[in-house]
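Quick check before the chapter quiz. The format below is the same one you will see on the exam, so make sure you can read both the input and the output lines.
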Amino acid sequence: MRVSGSSTLAEGKINEKLVTSGSTRINGNFDCEGFKSSGTLKGSGNLSVHGDFKCSGTFRLKGSLTIEGDARSSGSTTIDGETLVKGQYVKSGTPLRAGKQIEAIEGIKLSGLSKIQGNLMSKKDVVIRGNSTVDGNIKAENIFIGKPIDMRLIIHPYKVHGNIVADNEVNIKKTFVTGDVKGRDVIIGPGSEVEGAVYYINSIEVSSRVTLAKQPVQIKDE
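Here is the expected output.
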């Protein structure tokens, strides 16, 4: 189903892919087999996509977003409800604002400005490269926060108001963490500050330009 120009869609379900290129409004909950938007889309309910999701325009959803495939977004994105992606979620470019938890089973990559008012969860890797604030916990297989070379003057461009917990590796730079950091192998890079505890199983590496409230603690593998 292709929609262009200024249009309004009623609540419902279509057994095909929704493609929009204009200014589109969805009133209520909506289900579709796939989603692609290059214009402006505003939804007042929940959106369920039984396939892949791609958006390069402005996307604003009052409800929750569920995607059974992969999700890729490069436009301004605001989601007031929870986000569940059964594939991989990649967000770049202009801001991402999430009112609740984001979970992407196959991995999360954020390279633009992000504000997440909830947890960030994945069974694979979470990679954050753009200025980001997470008002919850980050939990994943591996967690990487910060660019390899970050010359920005902002003291803490990455903020986590919760715990960072990885099954394997945690590697953070210029990150402020109010909670604990835990991983099998942990690297606390330059410019970071951790107000909670740091736990590691195999190895720990702490830069000289780091502020820790407590000494790192080695724990046994559970």
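If your answer matched, good. Residues 14 and 151 are 48 Å apart (CA to CA).
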